[in-house]
Amino acid sequence: MAENDSSQEKTEEATPRRREQAREKGQVARSKELGTSAVLLASAVGFVMAGPGIAKALASIMTNLFTIDRAQVFDTNEMFLIWKFIGLELAFPILSLIAFLAVVSFIGNIVLGGITFSVKAFMPKPDKMSPVKGFKRMFGVQALVELTKGIAKFSVVALAAYFLLSFYFDDILALSREHLPGNVYHSLDLLAWMFILLCSSTLLIVVIDVPFQIWNHNKQLKMTKQEIKDEYKDTEGKPEVKGKVRQMQREMAQRRMMSEVPNADVIVVNPEHYAVAVKYDVMKSTAPYVLAKGVDDVAFKIREIAREHEIAIVSAPPLARAIYHTTKIEQEIPEGLFTAVAQVLAYVFQLRQYQQKGGRKPTPIPVNQPIPDELKH
After folding, report:
1. Which domains, and CATH codes, for the chain?
2. What is the pTM of this model?
3. Position 226 confidence tier, pLDDT thresholds 50, 70, 90
C-alpha cells in the first residue's frame, strides 16, 4: 500500500513527450510581469525617442492655434483645416511610437515560452465553469501568489514614484516660470526620465517572477513513476504491435532485396537451403558485393527469380554458406573469399560469352572450393 502511495507522488521530471503535449495544449511557462514590464519600459524609451518630434509638433500646433487672423474667425471651414493640420503634425511621431510598442509587446510576451498556438486552449472546459472549483482557485496557492505579486508591485511602484517626485519636485515647480516652447521640451524631458525610472522599478518583480514561473511550470508537469511507465508503453507500443511492425519491416526489406536479384551476376547456392546473389560492378565497388541472400523459402524465391531473368545459378555449398554468414546485404565479401568468388565470376562471364558467341565451353568450377577455416560455417 505504501508503495502504491509513493508511486502516485509526482516526483519525476517531465519527459520530452509530456512537455510537447503540454505545449500543444498551450501550457507553457509565461510571465505576465515580463510582458508588462517590457511594454512599460518600451513606452518610456519610446517617449525619449519620439519626444522631440512630439514636442515640436505640439509647439507648431499651439503656435498655429494662438495666431488666428480675422478671416479665419469668420470662416466655418477653418475648423476642419485645423484638425487636418493637427493630424498631419502628430501622425508620424505618434504612429512611430505605436509601432515600436507593438513590436516590443510581441517580443516581450514570447521571450519566455516562445510562440505557441493551440486550438485546445480555445475550447471551453466544463471544470472552468464549476463554482466549487472556482472558489478553490480563488483561495488557492496560485491566487495567493498573484495577490502577493499585486501587493509587491503596488508597493514597489508607489515607493519609486514617491522618491522620484521628491527628487524632481523643484524641477516640476520651476516649469511654471519657464517660457514656451522651452517649458514644453523641459516637461517632456522630465516626464520621459521619470517614466523610465518608474518603469525600471518593475524589473525587480520580473527578476523574481520569471524564475518562479519556470519552476511552477516544471512542477505542474512533473509525473508519477506510473505515468512514465504508461507513456513508455504508449510510445514504444505493445509487444504484439511491435512484433507486427517488425514483421512488416522485414517484409518490406525482403521485397526491396528481391527487386535487386535481377541485377545480380550469379546466384551461389547450397543447392537447396542457401542462396546468395552476388554482383561485381567496378564503378560502384572494388570487390564483389551481396545483393540478396536467404535460406529455405527465401532461397527458393531467389532461385525462382534468377531463372525468370536467366541469371546463372552455381552450386558451391561451402562458398554459399560462408558468404551468407559473413556478409550483409550491399556489403563487399570478405577478403578471404576473394579467390573462390573470383573463380565463380570468371566461370559465369566465360559461360555468358560462350552462350552469346559460341566457341569453347568453359570448364565447370569445383563444387567444394577451398574456404578459409575462420570463414567456414
Report:
1. 16-115+125-233 (no CATH), 259-375 (3.40.1690.10)
2. 0.46
3. confident
